[in-house]
């Protein structure tokens, strides 16, 4: 237990310093290698996408409740929808952050792997290691493309949500709500497409993690 507490403190300290190379070096000294870090970061990126799916769905539900408003406190319904939009924005930012962290450790891992291959004297071992590196790179590229495709679907949705929230903020009445109902169907379609794309990315993440853990 003490080891993991110390590991967490070390991790936080070095990450705050912004020195990734020092971070990786220090983590390796306590038995936590780049490969392990990469698996953990892919897992975290996957979890951030799952959270984003939930947040975008919740934002859609609150907008639906707002647009179906029929008596009661209109401002309260607006505030709930606004809060969910802001949560979706935060979730999207976290997805991007997690993908960047995956890319950072992947670059470090592949550079190290290639350097170490060049130090292997036996040709057959060098070929086998090179083959495994290339296979892992291909799998990784497929994973990141999938993550980035899902990520790219979020900004247009957030922009549409923001436009609606700002419009309603300045015109919070039944007539204003009626004016944006036509855009709601598009939002439903876009969020449905986003969730499907994220499901593909999540599946790729699971596949990549399994391949890394197998060897």
TrEMBL record:
Keyword field: Coiled coil, Signal
Cross-referenced Pfam families: DUF2959
Lineage top rank: taxon: Bacteria
Signal peptide positions on this chain: 1-22
UniProt xrefs under InterPro entries: DUF2959
Coiled-coil residue windows: 35-105
Protein name, UniProt field: DNA repair protein
Source organism per UniProt: Shewanella frigidimarina (strain NCIMB 400)
